Amino acid sequence: MGSRFFIRNLILFGLLASSNMQIPVGKLENKLELDVDFLLGVTEFMGHIHGLHSITVYSDCIDIQPSIQQRIMDKFVVPVYTIGSYLRRTNYNKLNNANIRIVLFTGLNDTILVNLNKTDVPYSDHFYMLAYASPFKNKSVELDFIEEVFILLWKMSIDNAILLVRGEFKMEMWAYFYMGKIHKIELTKANSFLESLRKYNYRFALQVIDDPPAIFWYNSSEQADVTGGGNLSVSGPVGLMIINFMRHLNVTTDIVPVSGKQNSQYEFFQQQEDWRAENGANMVGGALLKYSPLVTQSRMCLLVSNRRMIPFSRFLDKLVSPGVHKLTFASSIGIFVVKYFSHRPRSFVDALFCTIRFFFAIPLPSNILNRLPLVDKLIEVFIIIFVEILLSSNISMTTSALTTGFWEPPIRNVETMRASGLQIITEDPAIPQAFKENILPSSLADLVILVDKGTYFHHITTLNNTYVYVVQSHKWQIFRLYQQQLTNEPFEIASEELCSKWRVLGMPLNPKSPLRFMLKDYFYRILESGLQEKWLHMGFKKFCEFNNLQKLPVDSADSWQPLTIEFFLNFIRAYIIGLVIASLAFVGELLHNRYRRKNVKKT
Questions:
Q1: pLDDT of 24 higher than 70
Q2: Domain at 3-193: CATH code
């Protein structure tokens, strides 16, 4: 990550040091002006890190001429807010813009520390610089006093702070972190914090709740270098990010699986009172907390088929308007009636076959056409034109259905979803309630079916497009790689109307963890480097391995081949059966004529 990574993180912890940029240090004299100059130099350095928009000064009964507020405004040209026991209560909303807060105090009993406790938000990102104005000149501060100051700050939930005190020969800067107890650090070099962390050989804890494919744990010693030889590993983009963060810090982490499975509400996080202070993170992916990095934006959506083919058996009733079917039926009755009453002798079978022949547009020979009654001639000559057009259309549609196929209209909104006739399946018990509460369209609540995990996983991995699925958008971004080898992706996220509102998901960290500032900065660096995309593919590969998905689906080898003879087998059978029936009928007619002739001769 480079020296800038350490600079920002160590400053966030109060570790104001860098491998290529030194903090200004001044030798002590009897004049207080040098202490203020040093403080301003540190403030300027922090402004490059945080951005210097405004500064809040906590000061009470410290007489400096000119005032420190005036010197800050002259040097940085930014608004300065002052809090003191003798001043009017400040508008606390304005304090949110003050990333840097300077506290001038004369001792642990200074009343300004009481105001500091009242105006602060616990575990905030604000950076505090406490400058101790000692009443004793040329006297260094005892370590016990430094520890007492840090204990007081810890009780106020202020851990992002440094303490500026007089040393024996120069100004000293101290910071602290809490791991079971207060640990003081004198800021002398860039890696002071990490050295202290490793010195105590502290083991961090990583709590993991299964939320595949974003994060999941499995039995393996692949990450033994991080877990200290443990037999558990974590994968998924979020899990790999945390493991690599711990590997980067060169610290040991215990993976602690949490029973249960994450649901769509992402509320599987409760900060317990006895939560271990050294926990690095509780990987649930939800519960947006101020001191947590914002991992992603997500929402619940319907996963719909991108290309759903109409079955061949349904293409006529799906593609042809119901009015055409009604018109065809009515005209068939009319033609049958004409054929039946216009011929002598009247025969039901002859009229039926003539009607079928007519709708197949089989023309009659001229000599037969000339002998037809007038009404029959009009039908054969004029209406046959419409029948031939209709027949040509049917032949064209049948050809398309047999070759390229016809596709269902895309599902874009609630109306097309209901018109599709598909049901919505999910494995998450919280999803039906989300439909009832109109988080997802409540008008589709009657289509939701709750199934077990195995059934859901089978349908979605076999790319079964006879159902619609409910997915989290950030998890689908990973699982979408499952169809990466297909020319046309079978599934896609539906439109806005079939999705819930966006929500921000974060990693709820223990607010007392000394790693919380470093992890946030590490995450932002990951976004800039593009490693997230790499871990996404690595996490998906491990997910497939863990779930025995050995091969990704590919396009069928015969998807663009001509129709085989097996496809027409049923039509060939119908043709053969018709030939057999016609042959039997012909033989029957011969036998019947022969029998009738014999009877005629006898008579």
A1: no
A2: 3.40.50
